[in-house]
Amino acid sequence: MIVIDFIVSIFAFAVSLPLLSFFLLFLLLLVMTNSKKRALLLAADIAVVLLIFSIYFKLLILSQTAFYSGLFFVCLLIVFTGLLILIRSQSSITLSIAFKKCWRFSFLLLLPISTFLTIYGIISGILEYL
Predict the structure, then answer these.
(1) What crossing angle do the helices spanning 18-33 and 2-16 adopt, rounded to 10°?
(2) pLDDT tens readout for residues 78-88
(3) Is the pLDDT of residue 90 over 80?
(4) What pLDDT shows up at residue 108?
(5) Is residue 26 over pLDDT 90?
(6) Are 102 and 83 contacting, i.e. CB atoms less than 8 angstroms apart?
């Protein structure tokens, strides 16, 4: 039971503060890989999953409504938009490279959304008690 509680606590921390989790992941992967570029890309790949969960739980807390389908459609929209941009800019494209680029592009879109929801939640929580 102690191990499960520890894992749940780590996951809750990572979802609550995804930007800090991204930096900690980057530092850990930098030590493991000894390559800044590889560590940054791997940390960004892992952080996308954390950001998706983070945005979902923040929206759930702020609005008291589940957004399963909305968040799913936003992720699909990001992927299809990225694929459309890649197809128009390059003549030949492999599926794995296209998926990686869309996945990393979603990191760039989801990070400011998560940051905005965090700031909005803090401000609304403060104003609620005034």
Answers:
(1) 110
(2) 777 777 777 77
(3) no
(4) 86
(5) yes
(6) yes
* Residue 103 in tokens: 């996945």
Could you tell me the two tokens for 93? 């494209």
Return d(Cα 82, Cα 93) in angstroms, integer.
Answer: 12
Evaluate if residue 74 carries a pLDDT over 90: no
Regarding pTM above 0.90, the answer is no
Return all residues near 102 (Cβ < 8 A) that are at least 6 apart. 78, 79, 82, 83, 86
The residue assigned the tokens 């509680």 is 5
Q: What percent of the chain has pLDDT over 90?
A: 19
DSSP string, the chain: -HHHHHHHHHHHHHHH-HHHHHHHHHHHHHHHH--HHHHHHHHHHHHHHHHHHHHHHHHHHHHSS--HHHHHHHHHHHHHHHHHHHHHH-SS--HHHHHHHHHHHHHHHHHHHHHHHHHHHHHHHHHHT-
User: Measured between alpha carbons, how far is 16 from 53 in angstroms, rounded to an integer?
Assistant: 9
Q: What is the mean pLDDT of the chain?
A: 84
